[in-house]
Prior knowledge:
Number of strands: 14
CATH superfamily of the largest domain: Glycogen Phosphorylase B
Helix content: 40-55%
Strand order of the largest sheet: 3-4-2-1-5-6-7-8
Shape: globular
CATH class of the largest domain: Alpha Beta
Number of helices: 16
Radius of gyration: 22 Å
Strand content: 15-25%
CATH architecture of the largest domain: 3-Layer(aba) Sandwich
Order of helices and strands: EHEEEHEHEHHEHEHEHEHEHEHHEHEHHH
Largest sheet: 8 strands, mixed
Amino acid sequence: MNYSITHLTSAHPRYDTRIFLKECCSLAKVYHVSLVVADGLGNEEKDGVGIYDVGADRGRFGRIVKTTKKVLAKAIELDSDLYHLHDPELIPVGLKLKKMGKKVVFDAHEDLPKQVMAKHYLNTFTKKILSFSIAKAEIFALKKFDAIVAATPIIRDKFLAHGMNSVDINNFPMLDELIELKPRFDTPTICYIGLLYETRGIREIIQAIENIAVKLIIAGKFFDASFEAEIKALKGWEKVDFRGFANRDEVKEILEASIAGLVTLHPTPSYVEAYPVKMFEYMSAGIGVIASDFPLYRAFIEKGKCGVCVDPLDSDAIKGAIVDMIAHKEDTKAMGQRGKALIQSQYNWGVEEKKLLRLYEELLTNVSC
């Protein structure tokens, strides 16, 4: 039977890497797949997935209240066998679909209670109360769902501890994009690719390269004008080749020009227990990795001998790692080759796709015809 599947998001872009390129496109090989979005760009059919747009609403309140209602209405209209939700505000939608007898999966991209603890605009007491309340409500609601898809084993284990059906579907890279790149390792060039927030560690990176003969290529976007001005005023900025937002072809060119990539995120709750996609992209491209010294990162970087883990708040430690990689390019190249081999053998979307398809097969076995 060709079961119908619908993925729902009120916040993510329609071509989101995890939701569309990986999950929806993989599932479309077996099932009839629809994706409901809220971006105001209209309906379309792409790569075997029917995309349905409920329209964009301004502001967070509009998204949570108005958009959620429209997503529910479209979900009911599509009348699918299984619904896969990607945003916490859609949990009430999932509960209503469960009451209608539907199979429902929630995709936990992040640990929501811990994410609240990272909100800098809330005081400590408020964060603790809010995080505790969300944790209780989350478990109470999601226990009614058929399965939880978790973005990391740590998030998976949280739900398994409560007796819930949970499987980790990790954001590992697709093999057909970066694995064929051939970094040149001919110049002392390193890169940072990603968003440019303070907690992404960009200040410490710029401070680290002040007195090093190195070029740092940055591809990313600042979202705070005052923070951007502060960073560009640092002495080390003169070593930066700032590209701004880069498309995928431009990213490939940057990776091939670099000997190592930086992913020195600050130790916030949402980073410590989440996989940084860029780390795996650096590995996939075959360059060295300089990453934050988090247990989750060390399990890949140090165990796989494909990079170095450092204290992300210590610019001298970052500097030392950069200097070593530049001074020992052949060793760095070997790190890159080991990282690429790990991506090819273990840490790729093909492995995760099989887990996702297996979960869906188990859930849909008992769907009434």
